[in-house]
Amino acid sequence: MPRGGGWRPGARWARDADARAAIVEETATLPLHQQPTMRELGRRSEAADHPFKRPLPAPPGQARPVAAAAHAVPLILAETIGQRQLIAAACPAAQALGLTPGMAVTQARALVATLDVRAADPAADRAVIDGLVLHAIRHWTPTAAGEADGIWLDLTGVAHLHGGEARFGARLIRFCRRFGYSARVGIAGTPGAAHALARYGHEPLMRIASGGEAQALAALSPAALRLAPSALAAAQRFGLDRIADLLPLPRGPLARRLGLASVRRLDEALGRVAEPIVAVVPQETPETVRRLLEPIATAEAIEQVIGDLLADMIPLLRQRGRGARTLVLTLERIDGSAQRIAIGTARATRDAAHLARLFHLRIERIEPGDGIETMRLAAPHSDPLGATALAARLAGDEPVADVATLVDQIAGRVGEAALFTAAPVESDVPERAVRRTDALAAPTGWPAWRRPVRLLSRPEPLHAVLALLPDAPPRRFTWRGKVHAVVAGDGPERIHGEWWRRDGEIWAVRDYFRVEDEQGARFWLFRRGDGVDAATGDLSWYLHGLFG
Amino acid sequence: MSAPAPSPASLSHLRALAAVRPVVSGVLPFGVDALDARIADHGLALGGLHEVSPATPTLSDDAAATLFAVGVAARAAAANGRRVLWALTRFDLYAPGLEQAGLDPATLLFVEARDDKDVLAVMEDGLRHGGLAAVVGEVKRADMVATRRLQLAAMSGGAPALLSRRWRRQGVDPLSDLSAAMTRWRIACAPSARLPAPGVGRPRWTVELARQRGGPGFTLELEACDATGRLALPAAPRDRAVAADRAAARAA
């Protein structure tokens, strides 16, 4: 009985238990976004359930998929395409509510209030797929490839190793379930048919015999054939709802309506055109190991072993057509502890002498402890490096040593950050015109305005400057306590402030002069302000650089 | 018993060992006859150490000495198309200014080391590498041993080593230290020739060869580096070329 025992409008159904149960049952059959809100139903007299603890009512007549149990709240992944946020993927619970991939996220939020929206991460998806493909290549079949939402496995000639195609498919599904993925497997004679069965088949594991493709695919939607969206729209316009509708059509008109690519997709699915799987080739890190008979502790012995390891490593790299960019040397001591030493190179190299020299610079950092018993050398980062042209050497000329080896050597001595080239920046302000860049870069030059050879890092103020306004070089100035009488001057070179960098530079102007004093010293001076408008600067003078 | 006369081969071998007067493999001439004629090798020896120092501790002389080294390095780089290594401890060079003396940024490779010891070690690495046109280093202090090492490294690599010695204390000339350098230069700014119009003329330097192996020192007043790093002898006023347009007007 409700509190107070009195009659309240709108709560009549709550008093009658049968009517209430009937209504609750009726509303529960509706999809979530069509269920009446509490306001429409009228207030209930009991306290409402805690909104965050209430489990979502299951849609009637539909068995919940296993994965959906993990997400009590429907989960969708959102991706940003242009200015819009679209659903990239929806969990089974969300799909049961009518949310499909490609729908706008705002629309989904309007339909379902309690929606868990997370950002899609295609790179992470791709990493999972790649890991699975590598596992497949190592354990199941040598021909495997990954795509955005699935993997290809070529079971030709390997199915019997796993007890037949059907058993392998079941095992694949169990394997994925162990890692929390719900897999769907299609096994067919052509990649196109397998693709269609895995994504549009009515069972998680579908297998058809070779030659039965047309029959198996007939009932599926044309979308199963990997058609372009425009072709799918055209098929819908022409009333081609199933693949069975496409099969009897003459090929010429079909190609005109849906495009030649669509016909090709159909042929690939039916096995009329070959569609090879471009297999992934696993890339393993080249590694060489030397296990030593006696533990070593001296620098000479370590260097000898490094030389041996490099001699093993170079053929490995050459075989793969690659050059080392990073080499990691792992030294395992007798007590089980290990030390790692890494070198990097500015350009891919297979020059053993050069790599040995780089390790030589690091050898003093090795702490052998009681002795080193195993040494490993791995090349975790390598770049393609083809054969080297020997034209100059064959002609008998002395080959010119590559600067990249010197860069590595100096970087090993003073650090990588200490090596640089000066590159131009598109700025007229002198101190901003130069930036440091990579040592092997080939930067272009600057405009040919006269510039000093040394620039003071901070312009130094000048005192007692005698100059005619607005545009004459000074006649005399005092710098660091010394009076300089100017005998000749060039200028001004006007440089405006860069308002897009700093608000304070909107009106700022510097007038640069190149002046020579009576001793012959040549200076680069500037005055803040153009000498006419007070907003451009306070007419103070500075020395910014020195010409030789 | 008289000692047998030494054969020329063994003598040259001994000379190479002792390196009293190192065998000069190649020479980088300045292209100024008055200068080249007075240097023992008729130019800067390619496999040799050359020291450059400002004549006074002022920053303008320092800039002039730097530009002198830039000019030599630029001409060496233009001769064989290789790169120039520039090692220093505090980077205050202005790369657009270096480009205007002939060293474009793609040619230059800077190393900003922690101290003079590292600068000298980096210079030695660069000289022994053998793929560079020239190696320039700026130091405040380098003793006899260090310069001797550099001289030997330069001989093995075949690139000129330019050691720019900067002033570390007022009144102590940086070239007063002992050194194994082939030549030691002292550069100072000199007043430029006045132009008939307002403006600064081509800069001039007082170039002093303070010491060289196999010859006496001398002092010359020269015009500073142009856009390709070449020095020039100032023309006497009566020999100066008349401006082209006036010559054309006179001919007409």
List the helices and strands and how they pair.
The complex is a heterodimer of chains A (548) and B (252).
Chain A: H1 12-15, H2 17-29, H3 38-41, E1 75-81, E2 84-90, H4 92-96, H5 105-111, E3 116-119, H6 122-139, E4 144-147, E5 150-153, H7 165-178, E6 185-187, H8 191-200, E7 205-207, H9 213-217, H10 229-237, H11 243-246, H12 251-258, H13 260-270, E8 287-296, H14 299-320, E9 322-333, E10 338-349, H15 352-362, E11 372-384, H16 391-394, H17 403-414, E12 419-424, E13 434-437, E14 454-461, E15 463-466, E16 476-479, E17 482-496, E18 509-517, E19 522-528, E20 541-547
Parallel strand pairs in A: 1-3, 6-7
Antiparallel strand pairs in A: 1-2, 4-5, 8-11, 9-10, 9-11, 12-13, 14-20, 15-16, 16-17, 17-18, 18-19, 19-20
Helix pairs in contact in A: 8-13, 12-13, 14-15, 15-17
Chain B: H1 8-18, E1 27-28, H2 33-36, E2 44-45, E3 49-54, H3 59-80, E4 83-88, H4 95-99, E5 108-112, H5 116-129, E6 132-139, H6 144-157, E7 161-165, E8 183-190, E9 204-212, E10 218-223, H7 244-251
